[in-house]
Design a protein that fits this description.
The complex is a heterodimer. Chain A is mostly beta strands. Helix content of chain A is about 0%, strand content about 50%. In chain A, strand 7 and strand 8 form a beta hairpin. The model of chain A has no long low-confidence stretch (mean pLDDT about 95). Chain B is mostly beta strands. Classes of the chains: A mainly beta, B mainly beta. At the A-B interface, strand 5 of A face strand 3, strand 7 and strand 8 of B.
Chain lengths: ~120, ~110
């Protein structure tokens, strides 16, 4: 069974750094793109970016480029989303997701359970 | 980049049909046949209902259908059922990244 399991909820202070994870199982991790989606409290979905773990080819939404870093460690089948300096406005649920079709970047068929990030002083 | 434009809410009675629109530009919706639609129930992860404008993943009822005309894509749900009440988001390829719509809350009366 294909699964994406995300790391647990985080509570951080403004200015702190953070790296959340998404571990893939049940498939060849390097062969499928993995993306990240933000959902701020009570708001809609926002496409952040996507990475191909096989060669670390990464694409970002212009809205998130420079604000976050997407990476992957294929040795442990895990993708990451990281911030160097969190802001209160980064408070949101973050989902990782992947297409089920080899070579495609969409649609997102399989989703992680989400990681809630709360940034508050 | 701007989110695609969706109506904030739509409603319908059980058995009726509803259509949710998703308006973009020639740089996203109008330029590519990579429009997908996601359903999200409260507290749950989204689920893809339509991809490539008109295709349904296996397991999605054929009550759900998609279409596109120019810069506007549409999701039609026929034979509304109580469990269809949810938020719906369109998503389109925009040239090197994807963009979601603002979301539409579907209420089944």
């Amino acid at each position: 069974e294909v699964q994406l399991v995300q790391s647990g909820a985080e509570v951080k202070k403004p200015g702190e750094s953070l790296k959340i994870s998404c571990k893939g199982s049940g498939y060849i991790f390097t062969n499928y793109w993995i993306g990240w989606v933000r959902q701020m409290p009570g708001k809609g979905l926002e496409w952040m970016g996507i990475i191909y773990p096989g060669d670390s080819d990464t694409r970002y939404s212009p809205s998130f480029r420079g604000q976050v870093t997407i990476s992957a460690d294929k040795s442990i089948s895990t993708a990451y989303l990281q911030w160097s300096s969190l802001k209160a406005s980064d408070t949101a649920m973050y989902y990782c997701a992947r297409p089920d079709t080899l070579g495609r970047k969409d649609p997102f068929d399989t989703w992680g359970q989400g990681t809630m990030v709360t940034v508050s002083s | 980049q701007s989110a695609l434009t969706q109506p904030r809410s739509v409603s319908g009675s059980p058995g009726q049909s509803v259509t949710i629109s998703c308006t973009g530009t020639s740089s996203d919706v109008g330029g590519y046949n990579y429009v997908s639609w996601y359903q999200q129930h409260p507290g749950k992860a989204p689920k893809v209902m339509i991809y490539d404008v008109t295709k349904r993943p296996s397991g999605v009822p054929d009550r759900f259908s998609g279409s596109k005309s120019g810069n506007t894509a549409s999701l039609t749900i026929s034979g509304l059922q109580a469990e269809d009440e949810a938020d719906y988001y369109c998503c389109s390829y925009g040239g090197s990244y994807w963009v979601f719509g603002g979301g539409t809350k579907l209420t089944v009366l």
